[in-house]
Amino acid sequence: MVSTGCVIKDPGNSKKNKTGSWRTFKPVLDKEKCIGCDKCVMFCPDAAINKDHDINYDYCKGCGICSAECPVKAIEMIKE
Amino acid sequence: MTKEVMTANKAVAEAARLVKPKVIPVFPITPQTSISEYLAQYVADGDIDAKYVKVESEHSAISAAVGASGAGVRVFTATSSQGLMLMHEIIFAAAGMRVPIVMANANRAISAPLSIWNDQQDSIAQRDAGWLQTYVEDAQDALDSTLMAYKISENDDVLLPSMVCLDGFILTHTVEPVDIPNQEDVNKFLPSYNPKHSFLDPKEPMTLGALADPGYYFEARHAIEIGMEKSIDVIKKTCKEFEEIFGRKYDLVENYKCDDAEIVLVAMGSVCSTIKAVIDELREEGEKIGLLKIRVYRPFPVDEINDAIKNCKKLSILDKNITFGIGGALYSDIKAKINKETYGFIIGLGGRDITPDTIKEVYEKTKNPEKDVTWVGLKKEDD
Amino acid sequence: MKLPEEELLSSGHRGCAGCGASIGVRLALKALGRNTVAISATGCLEVMTTPYPETSWEIPWIHVAFENAGAVASGVESALRIQGKDDVNVVAFGGDGGTVDIGLQSLSGAMERGHNLIYICYDNEAYMNTGIQRSGATPFGASTTTSPQGKNSFGEDQHKKDMPMIMAAHGIPYVATASISYPQDFMKKVKKAAEIDGPAYIHLNQPCTTGWGYDSSKTIELGKLAVETGAWILYEIENGEFNLTHNLRKRKPVTDYLGAQKRFKHLQDKEKEEIQKYIDAQCAKVGIE
User: Fold this and answer.
1) Does B265 touch chain C if contact means CB atoms closer than 8 Å?
2) What is this model's ipTM?
3) CATH superfamily, region B2-246
4) Where does residue C245 rank: exposed (0-12), middle (13-18), buried (19+ CB within 10 A)?
């Protein structure tokens, strides 16, 4: 059954939708090279990179923005 | 309780004051205008503690109303005719989002040709939206129906918006004596609005107005139908509670001398007063005629109609609207739901006078029917 | 500004890989924080974040229709303020279609009435939700499905509607342009908009991988190119005072920007020159060389 007026009372529950399955290329971070500038965190459309720069592959769609914007080229896109 | 002589527009504004809405987004339009003016003055004078949102259109009036009601506060708005047409898309959204807005509609014809005069085409054209619709007969009915509309719409079994329809000019601009209930009685009748299903609060985040794919949409629309069906009992119960507190009796329909009538006229709104006077006159001449007033048009009170007309032979349905190619909307509804010899009459479009003779002509044409649907009051070719 | 960690637009939304709108909304919500109510016009953002029973919104959110985000926000704001909730941020998001075209009247009313709210137009320069039809914000020369290039057409034949200046003409306390590619500048402007008492309007340029035709990894790069070529100018107008917020010393030729996108691929030199001339004039108006 639907809720009254289709109101959704479970904020942020889209997390159960694992968009990682869309991915064809996978970003892999070389933590040795990382300078901690947070650009990848800031620009990720899917909030899939946390403050420790761990990439959450459950949600990463493989767009490649993090790799393109990394100033030290620490993120490589690898075909899945 | 105080008694005052006033228009139905003032009576509606008085009701709106008494229910203490928190947000009033309203845009003026003839013949609703004085409602928006009275409310602006009440807010300016501090008689209502509300935000009066001076919107730039009716579309924004209803949009702001949905936003405010969705946010969790009681809302009042009012419109008419072209304004209601402009609201059309959001009228459906309001019902779908289950926001219990109450809106008065001063019934007026629809352009083209442009007309400011009365008929009921405007609200009839919204009948499929999922709003409850009450057609009032006089100014007192306008006030009382507005009060009751909140209690009905805000009921957890209903949670659908309400439209209180009052005939333009005939009611909106005519003065009559009206009992104004006192605030304590209204407070007793209508508790404050504390919605559980929908509000906007950062402490308890909700998403309102989501999109639904074919896996959910069907059930969402069905839920509106269930709300509409359940509203029948809620309306009856509310009318009883209203009578206990305020002493005035209302129901979904009004049976006026139907029980022994051979022909029953069926109509909505202010024309019912004219019809009652004609019935009294014809009854003295021995005619077996009655009136079934449809006070609540949505939900459609099928059982109450059947009960009232069970003894009669024929029905004549008077519509101040036209569904082109079919006849009046009330006529087609009755044809669909009621098993009785039925004739339809289109009357009074765009303010064409409805006199006792109009009603007598309807009665005669029902006794000696020529066709299913007749327009009564048209000028002759050479007029 | 340190980037707040809290994600208020959660993962799992259905935006395209490389979606610029999601970046914009994520950043705006980081700047605003949890004590915020959001309103959305119908469009990409609404569709991709709220397919029932899922929502990506961690804060209260409401959508009613395409053309009425300004009016719905007015109702929400009025309801909150009358309850004494003066500290809650009210932010409305509309795409360029919902803002510069079908929602213009509703937005104009909201701005003119002085509601204390922020309206952010996420501008991807066409109706992307329905599959790349032109809007009043589509730039000259762009090929869209309703302004297609063809034997007798070079694509969109009108320049972009100057929406931020239309908003500024309302005399509201704060108007700004921004780009998702300049996140610090954008978030600073959102914070400022929240602190100001009264209506604020931010027009956010937001490249769209699907509609503009570039590789999904280049969303930020395209946003930068728009600014570096002067095709998108970053400024703010605070209480009537105009200030550029990005120091553009040497503009890149617009061909750098046009050449990176499929929607402009068909353009001949004649049209490219006209675009360059138009940008030169726009920049000259605000004192950019």
Assistant:
1) no
2) 0.97
3) Thiamin diphosphate (ThDP)-binding fold, Pyr/PP domains (3.40.50.970)
4) middle
